[in-house]
Write a structure and sequence with these properties.
Rossmann fold; Glutamyl-tRNA Synthetase, domain 3; 4 domains; 504 residues; mainly alpha; binds glutamic acid; 11 strands; 21 helices; 3-stranded antiparallel beta sheet; elongated
Amino acid sequence: MNQKIRVRFAPSPTGPLHIGGVRTALFNYLFAKKHNGDFVLRIEDTDQNRYVEGAEEYIIEALNWCGIPFDEGPGKEGSVGPYRQSERKHLYKNYALELIDKGHAYYAFDTPEKLDFHRKDHEAKGKTFIYNWHNRLKLNNSLTLSEDEVKDKIDAGQDFVIRFKSPQDETLILNDLIRGEIKIDTNILDDKILFKSDGMPTYHLANIVDDHLMQISHVIRGEEWLPSLALHQLLYNAFGWNAPQFAHLPLIMKPVGKGKLSKRDGEKGGFPVFPLSWNESQGYREAGYFPEAVVNFLALLGWNPGTEQEIFNLNDLVEAFSLDRVNKSGARFDPEKTKWYNHQYLQKTNDVELAELFQKQFATKLGPDNSQLDKTLIEKVVSLIKERANFVSDFWGLSSYFFEAPSSFNEKMVRKQWKEGTPALMQSVASIFDNCDDFSSARVEQQVKNWITEQELSFGKVMGPLRLIIVGDMKGPHLFDILELIGKKESLARIETAITSLSN
Ligand code: GLU
């Protein structure tokens, strides 16, 4: 390929970006980087009625958080900007007029009331009204009016639209890099509106003009745009431009049932569908996901590497990605798998970094970052418990007993573990502890085990209640590691307290 690879992500700022949109951006990014190409962000904001304040900033922040930055876009001007369609408004009208000149488009003056009348009239007869070859010669447009009549209406300030004149009786052969060849009978297409008298182009016109002017080589977008492909191809043909290549990505499907993953699915299932929080909807960032985990699970929604490999960092993805391995069928979203991914990335993050995140998130419990609390203690705790955690937010629940004595004991476990002879056994354990000058895990373990063997006791009878005393429950990592970290004094104090409170 000698043409430079240039792709674009072209969201409309009508609200927060759904993770499906992030996946589209990611696939564009991966494809661009794989081929040393450019990744462009274009904001498609021609529909001012649907414009939502803050949505553009949200999109940019989400891409940055995911670590998939664009090369050109708003705030990163390249040679084909501006990158907001509202700032390119002046460009589109001439292209619409060019199509009229070439006989591929026409002015239409039909009022909304008139169109509504035709729609209802057709419905009553069990038919569907489509504005196209079928009836355009019976409607109020420049195909039926004289040139003077048209001019008069425009001069008089009458509202108009410019419609594409879709061809009759043709078979279009479209090509999609994921779906292969698609045949379309042009008779089913309607004459879509390209431009309105308020001076604004519609999505279709602006999108094609900009992809052309921005020298886009590949259009990679969601499957919901597949029905527009025929019109887009016809527009390229009408202008006499080479069309980019197209790839329509499969939908992201609900965890159960049929259909596209929606905001409601997230609300029902208690999982995010947005990268960042938006109003009351929690985002992946705020739910405690690592961006690397999000990127990794998104990459495997609709694409597969052809191997069993599941863990990919961004560089691995760039290396492995190809459109050939993008599936045609929808990709089912699995919220449990997203947690699994975060778990994997949490295990890969080093303890120093995790300890910092832990301390930041639980500053009220662990003290602020600059507190005296021993940083190495927190790091050691993290190393002992992280394999049980999916998120940093799980850390406190898994480790509070390292930092403070249990405030209560699991009652069911007390009934099971705390027997008549237990207080005496725990007293003996306390004196062993007292005699240990070296309170390291290995040393204490050796001493306790020697004593158990000498006394011909059962391990369970000693270790069970001891864990209950130290942890408050029968959970947690290797008990002697816990003892070493909380230290001799605290271990003795906990035994003391428990003997008093549990023996009553
Ligand atoms: N503005 C469209 C959207 O909101 C862009 C579709 C396309 O990529 O052509 O998704």
